[in-house]
Each structure stands twice: as structure tokens, then as C-alpha cells.
Design brief:
heterodimer; A: 320 residues; Rossmann fold; 6-stranded parallel sheet; globular; B: 323 residues; alpha/beta; 7-stranded mixed sheet; 5-stranded mixed sheet
Chain lengths: 320, 323
């Protein structure tokens, strides 16, 4: 995204890696190779990639069960992510977390949380710790539009604002709260931004399918937090290409709406802006696919967790 | 000799842990400038200042979440929930997150927090300000549960709780605030998971926690005239549960009565009874009995609340029924 002529290809590749990863995850579930559920982020790649480019190394990131894109964008190795989703010992959580809980402490990926809104207070705690330890980190907390209707969102926003904590909240508004149009369940147009004023925060709405807009907004918010000026709440408009979870075809969405948003696909949008040829885009896509396939093959070859893992790490080893 | 009561022991316990470890921070509603709704945290803000003792909004989910997040970043937060009943508003953070994050991340993250809550009946607070939630908490793997019954134990157990790398729910009983004891020396530590024999005896074992410990002791006195010699055990922590001490006592006495405040359905007494039935059945000469509250919410009226709480007399009657 800078003067480097190859920089925009790097950005594209990041989005394509996520897209291809999610496509493979969908196949794994459709083929019955994994139980449980998965929540894909096809169409929302720009939010994750823009966020990741704006943050500094070591900045804590907390996201949701729809969090493959955020964790991969922040550096989670594809093999580690696949292995976790497949429940293998080599997964980032040793196979004890799963698709909804990708975490990697070494990357300050403090977790993907599967109870709506629950991670926002935890993110506030991470930011609070930074004010006490002066580690200079800025925490980033990502959630969906449906999260704005749960109490913990409001408790956390209030506390972060009143304590002026170094945190950037990003609401990925993909217009659907699971299966329900967000407009049907909130009385305002922008579920996050229209509430920002209640916590003394600026009203920020951005195009979440524009990776550069996301990077710019998050960079500004990070700068503000870093300067001791407190939190920001960014509402990034985006769209899920698919349904809520693997079992949901998303049929409740009007066809025209889906088509409109498919035409705003973040990857094509970015490629067009930077005049990347169709041929080059396909080459990059093939590169991403190869990397994803290699990672998946390694993950599939990895063993299931040993039986001892069942009982380990309920308690810390120091305690009985 | 300095005497301290249970109420003041709470602030003393927190202060000792904060003096020992600069990573310990304390947050809660009205805990700093007001010194706590029950005056259990008086003087902490003055001693440790505004960068370690924090008043929060009325936001239990934010309090617990903030403690979890800060713990995951290396601090040792103590979070106060004013009444244990209010744990209902933040159970998600405690049960779904604090208790599970270590397991779900296969040990990458741990959550060393202490959640303090004032619990228990006997003061006329009614159904929503009198619960302990101890049995419910005990049923959650990954969460330790501490229920001190004396000032000295409170101070000692608290040091272990703060040093513990796992989340600990520390339930302080409101009916014990005026219980007095000699101030324990600096460095006094009581390990988690060690029950205490508070009265030795040979005929029957009474097991109790919190405000039921003095009830059990009083019951033991009542039956002494009938030459029934009771041993009384204070569990002190529910998780880890010291079954070794219970079984050792039952081996000696062959009779067991469990005295639990609260309905007891899926309570700690259910668990202890099940474990003794399993591991100590052949030591028993008679069925295990439980003295619990009736299966109702805690009533308000003093006369009804008094009927609801297990009494020394009812425990004594249960003891005598064996002979």
C-alpha cells in the first residue's frame, strides 16, 4: 500500500490466502471431515488485512468465532490454523479449541471467542493492563454488528471510554446478526457508530471492503490510543458472501443485495484500483491456493491429540 | 496481641497480597474511595493509590472481563463482586472464559484472577442478596472455590488464592463479619485444598463450610452431654476438595453428617456424600445424612430466614437420631 511497487501484490496475496483458506475449510466441513460448525469470512477479508497492516507487532487482537481472517492476517500460520480446525495435536490450541477459538499467544492473538460480546470486556482488560505496565501496546477488538445489542458491548465501551484505554474497537457490520437483518433488530442505521456518541466517541463509518480505508482508519485510531486519547469505535461496512455458519445457505438475503455486495468484493476492488491484470490476479490466486493446499496436506498428516491431552491444562501444572 | 475481625481481615488480606506482588491490582464497585459497600476494603486506595485500586461502574461483566484480560497480559487482578448473587450477571466471564481459557488454549494462556464476593444468608437481605453460589461454582472445571470461615483462614487462604495461577472464586460470608480472632503473623499462608479439623472427636464426623462451621461446632457442644463425641471438619476450599481429610475422619468415626447452607441440591454436600459413598462405603456404620436449607429461595422475613438456615439444634437432632 506504499511506494513499493510490489506492496499491493502483497496486500492482495494476504486477502487471497484468507479467501482460499476459507474455501478449503468449507470443503472440509461439506465433506464431513470435521464436526461442529464453522463461520467463514469470505467477503470480509479487507477488514482483517487492513487491521493487520495498521497494528504494530505485539498489539493484542481479540476476535470472534468468525475469526479465521483476523488470525491469519495477524500471522497465524495456515498449517496451524488448519490443524486446529481439524482437531489435530499440531493445531494452535493443540486441537482443544477448534474453528471458533483460534489463538496464538506468541502473536498476541488473545483468542477468538464464541459467545457474542464476551470478549469485549476481556479486550478492555488487555488494554487496561497496557496502561498499568506501560508496554505501549494498543489492543484491537473485533466483533460483528449483532454484538451491539448485547450488554457486555455497552459495559465494555463505557469502561474503556471512562478509563481512556488504548483500544481500537472494530465492528464488522456485515448487515446480518446471524440469520436476521441487523436493520430488523436495531432502531438505528449504524448499530455501532450511531451509539459511539453515548460513550463520548466519534462516529466513524468506513467501507470495510476497502482495505486501504480500513488501514487508514485503524492507523488513526491506533495513533490516538497510543497518544493517551482513549478508544475508538470503527464501524466497517462489509458483507458475508455466504451464510452465518456452514449449515446456512443464507437464503433469507435478497438476491439483489447479495449481487450488489458481490460486485463490491474487496479483492476485485483492490485489484481494479491498482490495475492488477486479471491474469496476474489469477497467478496470485494460484500461488495462494498452492500455499493453502500445502498447509492443508501437512495438517491432515498430523496426529490427533494424545489421550493424555484430555486431562491436561484444566489446571496449571503448578497446582494440584 | 492484636485481634482482627473477619470484615477487617478482608482488607488486611488484600493489602498483604498487594504489598507482596506489585502486579496485584484490585477493582470493583465502590471498593476504592468508599472502602466497599460492607467496609471490607477500607484503606486500600489510601495505601496503594489510584493506579492499583479502582472504582468501576456498575458493570459486573466489564469487571470480570477486565480482570481476565489483564490477567492474560501478566497482571494479577482481584475483582470484587459486591454480592455473590450478582455473579449471575457475569457468570459468562467466569464459567465460559476464566475457567476454560487455559484448557481451550492448551495451556498457552492462564487466567490468574481472584474473584471476591460477599455471600451468604442470615442478615435479612432476601432472596437476591443472600446466596453463596458455591455448589454451582464447584461444578465448573477450571475454577477454584474458597470459602473461609475465620479471619485467620481468610487471610491465609487469600494469599494462596492470589498466588495461584488459576482463577479462584473467593466467597466471604457476610454473617461472619464480626467473628474475631488473633491477627495471624505476616507471611501466614493457608494452602488451597487442605481442610481443617476444627474439633477432634471419635463418634461422628460433621463437615461444614463458612457460616455452617460455627453451627456444626455448636451442635457438637449440644450433643457432648449425651456423650457423643463429634469431629468437625471445615473444608475451607471446595475446589480443590480435600477428600483425604474427610475420609480419614470417617475411617475413625464411621458416621458422617454434612451441614450445608443452601438447598444442597447438587451442592458441595452432594459431591462429598457421593465421594464418601464411593470411596468410603465400607467405613460407614450408618447412612450419610445431610442438613441443608429447604429447596426454596432464601426468604426475607427474619422468622422465615431463621427456619431456612440450618441450626445447631437441627444438626444435633440429626446426630442424636443415629443412637
Amino acid at each position: 500500500m506504499t511506494a513499493n511497487p510490489h506492496a499491493h501484490e502483497h496486500v492482495l496475496l494476504q486477502m487471497l490466502r484468507i479467501r482460499e483458506f476459507e474455501n478449503r475449510v468449507q470443503s472440509l466441513f461439506s465433506d464431513g471431515l470435521v464436526k461442529g460448525s464453522t463461520h467463514l469470512a469470505n467477503g470480509q477479508e479487507a477488514v482483517a488485512v487492513g487491521m493487520a497492516f495498521a497494528l504494530h507487532p505485539g498489539d493484542p487482537v481479540l476476535c470472534t468465532y468468525r475469526g479465521h481472517h483476523h488470525t491469519i492476517a495477524r500471522g497465524l500460520p495456515l498449517e496451524s490454523a488448519f490443524a486446529e480446525i481439524l482437531g489435530r495435536a499440531t493445531g494452535c490450541c493443540g486441537g482443544k479449541g477448534g474453528s471458533m477459538h483460534l489463538t496464538d499467544k506468541s502473536l498476541a492473538l488473545m483468542g477468538s471467542y464464541a459467545i457474542i460480546g464476551s470478549h469485549i470486556p476481556i479486550a478492555v482488560g488487555a488494554a487496561w493492563a497496557s496502561t498499568l505496565t506501560h508496554d505501549g501496546a494498543v489492543t484491537c477488538c473485533i466483533f460483528g454488528d449483532g454484538t451491539t445489542t448485547i450488554g457486555s458491548f455497552h459495559e465494555a465501551l463505557n469502561l474503556a471510554a471512562v478509563w481512556r484505554l488504548p483500544i481500537v474497537f472494530i465492528c464488522e457490520n456485515n448487515l446480518y446478526s446471524e440469520y436476521t437483518a441487523i436493520g430488523d433488530v436495531v432502531p438505528i442505521e449504524h448499530p455501532a457508530a450511531d451509539r459511539a456518541g453515548a460513550y463520548g466517541l466519534d462516529r466513524i463509518v468506513i467501507d470495510g471492503n476497502d482495505v486501504e480505508a480500513v488501514k487508514e482508519a485503524v492507523s488513526l485510531a491506533r495513533e490516538r490510543a497510543s497518544a493517551g486519547r482513549g478508544p475508538s469505535l470503527i464501524e466497517a461496512l462489509t458483507y458475508r458472501h455466504g451464510g452465518h455458519s456452514r449449515a446456512d445457505p443464507g437464503d433469507y438475503r435478497p438476491r439483489e443485495e447479495v449481487e450488489l455486495w458481490l460486485s463490491r468484493d474487496p479483492i476485485s476492488k483492490y485489484a481494479d484500483r491498482h490495475e492488477v491484470s486479471t491474469q496476474r490476479l489469477e497467478q496470485l490466486g494460484a500461488e495462494a491456493r498452492d500455499e493453502v493446499d500445502r498447509a492443508l496436506r501437512k495438517a491432515l498428516a498430523a496426529p490427533a491429540p494424545a489421550a493424555e491431552a484430555l486431562l491436561s491444562n484444566v489446571w496449571s501444572e503448578e497446582s494440584s | 496481641m492484636t485481634i482482627i475481625n473477619y470484615r477487617k481481615a478482608i482488607a488486611e488480606a488484600i493489602a498483604r497480597s498487594m504489598r507482596e506482588d506489585p502486579k496485584v491490582v484490585f477493582l470493583g464497585e465502590d471498593v476504592a474511595l468508599a472502602g466497599g459497600a460492607f467496609k471490607t476494603t477500607v484503606g486500600l486506595r489510601e495505601e496503594f493509590g489510584p493506579t492499583r485500586v479502582f472504582d468501576t461502574p456498575i458493570s459486573e461483566q466489564a469487571i470480570i472481563g477486565a480482570a481476565i484480560g489483564a490477567a492474560m497480559r501478566g497482571l494479577r487482578p482481584i475483582a470484587e463482586i459486591m454480592f455473590a448473587d450478582f455473579l449471575g450477571t457475569c457468570w459468562d466471564g467466569i464459567a465460559n472464559h476464566a475457567a476454560k481459557i487455559r484448557y481451550m488454549t492448551d495451556g498457552a494462556y492462564s487466567v490468574p484472577i481472584v474473584i471476591r464476593a460477599h455471600g451468604g444468608a442470615g442478615l435479612g437481605f432476601g432472596a437476591q442478596h443472600s446466596q453463596l453460589y458455591d455448589g454451582l461454582a464447584m461444578s465448573i472445571p477450571g475454577l477454584k472455590v474458597v470459602v473461609p470461615s475465620t479471619p485467620s483462614d481468610l487471610i491465609g487462604l487469600f494469599q494462596s488464592a492470589v498466588r495461584d495461577p488459576d482463577p479462584v472464586l473467593f466467597i466471604e460470608h457476610k454473617a461472619l463479619f464480626d467473628v474475631k480472632e488473633e491477627m495471624p503473623p505476616e507471611g501466614h499462608v493457608v494452602p488451597l485444598g487442605k481442610a481443617q479439623v476444627v474439633r477432634e472427636g471419635s463418634d461422628l464426623t460433621l463437615v461444614a463450610t463458612g457460616a455452617m462451621v460455627p453451627v456444626a461446632l455448636a451442635a457438637a457442644e449440644l450433643v457432648q452431654d449425651r456423650r457423643i463425641d463429634c469431629e468437625v471438619i471445615d473444608l475451607r476450599t471446595l475446589t480443590p476438595l480435600d477428600m483425604h481429610s474427610v475420609l480419614r475422619s470417617v475411617e475413625k468415626t464411621s458416621r458422617l453428617i454434612l451441614v450445608e447452607e443452601g438447598p444442597g441440591i447438587c451442592g458441595w454436600s452432594s459431591e462429598v456424600a457421593a465421594r464418601v459413598a464411593d470411596e468410603g462405603f465400607w467405613m460407614l456404620d450408618a447412612p450419610i445424612r445431610r442438613v441443608c436449607s429447604p429447596p426454596t429461595p432464601t426468604p426475607f422475613s427474619e422468622s422465615l430466614e431463621s427456619l431456612w438456615l440450618p441450626k445447631a439444634e437441627s444438626v444435633a437432632a440429626e446426630i442424636e437420631s443415629y443412637w
